[in-house]
Specification:
mainly beta, 27 strands, 5-stranded antiparallel sheet
Length: about 325
């Protein structure tokens, strides 16, 4: 099938705000004659829970002597919406598929040019979720380097299990809502931030937490569950979810949310009374709303895109101002 070329210039606005990956320590290497022989790039991609991954933008290192001037997608399934944000027609892609596009690079400093000898040209390309492989590259008539790459496999980020709870009939039985596409789960029994026991399960959305390894469990322990890929093949295109956490301890007491702020080398987190960090998205603290990453528990700032499909701007303090 003939694919029209899709030119995208400056098409990422709000989506790129929270996903920009800045390589501040990278070094660009060139010969004494000005040939640029080593290329380092980062493809910022997105994988919201319950969606397939997609490349959003391509960035060169901050101190590079070249710059990204265009990204050309070779598939009509990649397009701009009315707000000039990059979108992918997910109906055209299946888990494990690949997306091909070309990156156009131009020298950013006088006296530098791309080495036309392919054997002397090397690439380092990183991503946030999936992978990117260089297929080929060539210098065009304008002196630009055109790099053809393959992004993928397209990955699917599993949803965080919801309604994680101990059974009222038997506190040793833990249940949660089944997660679409999930073929396995990882269950952890927790005491504060300490992992007491880890259990891996299959597709069944429940498990018995009794048996061996329960010696350190008491009534104050709670549990958390995440959906995970099973097997080498699935790990190539399924990305594990965040943790769903029980709202109570095993003895039925509330875990509570009135805790204290903790600053760990510039990253703010909120420690709950049971010593675990809050990591379940929105939390109201002293009358203000804050958002915490479901994996790292880090307080978020700037533009964020949440599960309800909306953008929110968080102040530098992390506080969400609904009137801003």
């Amino acid at each position: 099938m003939d694919c029209k070329l899709k030119h995208l210039k400056n098409v990422w606005k709000k989506a790129a705000v929270s996903l920009i990956f800045c390589v501040t320590a990278a070094t660009t290497v060139w010969g004494s004659n000005g040939k640029i022989s080593k290329i380092q790039l980062h493809v910022a991609d997105q994988a919201e829970e319950g969606t397939t991954s997609r490349p959003l933008n391509v960035f060169a290192p901050e101190n590079a002597v070249y710059e990204v001037t265009d990204v050309i997608y070779e598939d009509d399934s990649v397009y701009e919406d009315e707000n000039e944000n990059l979108q992918i027609d997910e109906t055209e892609y299946r888990l494990g598929d690949y997306i091909r596009f070309r990156i156009v690079l131009s020298p950013a400093k006088d006296g530098r040019y791309f080495n036309e000898n392919r054997d002397d040209r090397s690439f380092t390309i990183t991503t946030d979720f999936s992978e990117t492989t260089v297929l080929n590259s060539d210098v065009n008539e304008d002196g630009q380097l055109v790099v053809r790459v393959k992004y993928g496999p397209v990955v699917y980020r599993l949803q965080t299990p919801e309604n994680v709870a101990f059974s009222q009939a038997d506190s040793k039985i833990l249940t949660w809502n089944e997660v679409p596409e999930a073929s396995g789960y990882e269950v952890q029994l927790m005491k504060g931030d300490q992992v007491i026991k880890t259990i891996t399960t299959g597709r069944v959305a429940s498990c018995n937490i009794g048996g061996a390894g329960t010696e350190g469990i008491d009534g104050s322990c709670y549990a958390r569950v995440k959906a995970v890929p099973v097997g080498t093949a699935q790990k190539r295109y399924l990305y594990e979810s965040g943790y769903g956490v029980t709202s109570t301890a095993i003895d039925g007491s509330s875990l509570g949310t009135q805790g204290q702020w903790v600053n760990d080398q510039g990253t703010w987190r909120y420690r709950l009374p049971d010593n675990r960090y809050y990591r379940d998205g929105w939390l109201e603290v002293d009358g203000s709303w804050y958002y915490f990453d479901k994996t790292t528990a880090a307080m978020q700032t700037g533009w964020i895109y949440t599960e309800d499909g909306k953008w929110y701007f968080l102040e530098e303090s992390g506080r969400w101002n609904p009137d801003a």
